[in-house]
């Protein structure tokens, strides 16, 4: 089925295509390339590989490449082109797949290694754009460090706030039961101060949590999405390079046959395989350029976020910790009322618990004390004090001391 399109010529009386084939070797004339920012490119109807059938209803059958170009340039203003569209296959060629694998291997090689192995390096291999992926990895490492540090700070602040709240409850309860008024007020104020410090810790936690969410959004969404886009870009680039290399090999083959004045079998039958590769290369190039643009935009956004957002997040973290420390100091300073006089008298003091052996021993001592005779201390001048038993006491009663 033949299609037709009317194009308005641009500067230099050009429509923006290059052609191939034509007499005497090829029975048809076909489009090899559509140039960027030209009438044919802006219209989007003509694609590489399409067969040109007629120009302004003039059939191109039997025309050479030069005759076709002259006919197109001879028309002024607008021009109508009839063409047969070629559709690319759904499955990729085995040769293209192998060339794609080769480019993936060559990309990470050094120039000296590739030259030693005799491997041809394409222009887009070792693309500088992919070097930014390493920079992205280092940025991710920095963000992971900040996120881990923030999580540790958050956990410590939560634990500290919990301890302050418990201490506040303990000091407040001591103040309630304290009898002396000054000590009661001091303990109560000290407990209120600790509870206020716990509230400041909660405020710091609430300030740091959004920071962690922003960091996780960057690490879990923005960075992986950009890496996925870069991988798609690499795949599209290798595919485009593979088609370019294959077409270059076929061009060289056709040139050798032309120099030898011999017809190439695939050329005299319409060069269908070559035209299909031209169409595939065109589609691969469009995909490659689109993904390259997407990668540039995403990398630029990530770079801007790194420059602006990292400083902002660090300022939020450090500023929150500064406010927490300053407020805690202001709260605790007036609550320091030491020394505190407290009432230490114990009422209804319970007896000290003793072991059963100690209790039995006490009972035995009491029994011995009850059964033992009374002793008397006799004070004799010039002699040390002596303890006398009951018999000595009776004798001493009959004596008269002079």
> How does the helix and strand content classify structurally?
alpha+beta
Query: What is the terminal separation in angstroms?
Result: 164 Å
Estimate the strand proportion.
5-15%
Number of strands: 8
The total of helices stands at: 10
Report the major sheet. 6 strands, antiparallel
List low-confidence stretches: 121-125, 349-354, 375-402
Gyration radius (Cα, Å) is: 50 Å
* Series of secondary-structure elements, N-terminal to C-terminal: EEEHEEHEHHHHHHHEEH
Overall pLDDT confidence: 78
Q: In one word, what is the shape?
A: rod-shaped
Proportion of helical residues:
55-70%
In short:
This protein is of the alpha+beta class. It has helices at 39-43, 65-74, 94-107, 111-117, 128-177, 181-259, 265-268, 272-332, 356-371, 390-398, and strands at 2-8, 17-21, 29-34, 51-55, 58-59, 78-84, 376-378, 386-388.
Tell me about this structure:
The chain is rod-shaped and about 150 Å long. The chain has 402 residues and is an alpha+beta fold. The protein has helices spanning 39-43, 65-74, 94-107, 111-117, 128-177, 181-259, 265-268, 272-332, 356-371, 390-398, and strands spanning 2-8, 17-21, 29-34, 51-55, 58-59, 78-84, 376-378, 386-388. The protein has 10 helices and 8 strands. Strands 1, 2, 3, 4, 5 and 6 form a 6-stranded antiparallel sheet that branches. A two-stranded antiparallel sheet has the order 7-8.
Topology, pairings included?
Elements: E1 2-8, E2 17-21, E3 29-34, H1 39-43, E4 51-55, E5 58-59, H2 65-74, E6 78-84, H3 94-107, H4 111-117, H5 128-177, H6 181-259, H7 265-268, H8 272-332, H9 356-371, E7 376-378, E8 386-388, H10 390-398
Antiparallel strand pairs: 1-6, 2-3, 3-4, 4-5, 4-6, 7-8
Helix pairs in contact: 3-6, 5-6, 5-8, 6-8
